[in-house]
Amino acid sequence: MSTIAASSSSTKVRVPAARLLPVLTALGFAILGASPAKADLRLCNQTGSKVGISLGYRDPQGWVTEGWWDLAPKACETLLKGALAARFYYVFAVDYSRGGEWSGRSLMCTRDSEFTIRGIEDCLARGYDRNGFFEVDTGEQKSWTIQLTDPNRADAPAKP
Fold first, then answer.
1. DSSP secondary-structure letter at 43?
2. What local confidence, expressed as pLDDT, does residue 104 receive?
3. Which of 3, 9, 36, 99 has the fewest beta carbons closer than 10 A?
4. 68: Cβ–Cβ under 8 A, 6 or more apart, which residues?
5. What is the C-alpha to C-alpha distance for residues 72 and 69, in angstroms, rounded to an integer?
6. Helix residue spans in the chain (DSSP H)
7. Is the pLDDT of residue 80 over 50?
């Protein structure tokens, strides 16, 4: 029979391993179960610039665009909390430090100040700006992190 030795300042206590294993196993499961795995949509700004992020997605009521999240260089932000409900999300980002943007072909509504806009039709007629968002395919994962990289870096992925 194997034993595990535990010692305190001057006394030694011998505990049979067979008795200690169930306690350690239960403790391990308690620690693992204490905090559920996070399922969020996150965006990480891997650039050296401060950037502004706007997000488009479809929820049960239809299309929504939201903005702006301001991200410092090398920072991450949770854009949506909880398990993802859609496969596709859309991002439009602006480089505040050097100018420029990350954009795509999916036209959605934005505005200059903080916003939540329902619908993607008639942006200009409704008093909003219209910008092209790039598509992010999460593959129906419940959690996803988007990496925003500097388009001038040699190892940066191609712009969507």
1. E
2. 96
3. 9
4. 52, 53, 54, 113, 114, 115
5. 10
6. 17-34
7. yes
In the numeric block, the tokens 């036209």 are attached to 107
pTM: 0.71
The one-letter amino acid at 19:
R
- Residue 57 and residue 79: Cα distance in Å, rounded? 11
Exposure of 78 in the CB half-sphere (CA atoms within 13 A):
9
Nearest to 55 by CA among 21, 80, 25, 82: 80
Q: Catalogue all structural domains in the chain, each as residue range(s) with its CATH number.
A: 3-34 (no CATH), 40-148 (2.60.40)
Q: What mean pLDDT is predicted for residues 32-54?
A: 79
The CA distances from residue 153 to 37, 121, 148, 159, in Å, are: 33, 35, 12, 12
Q: How far is it between the farthest Cα atoms of the chain? A: 81
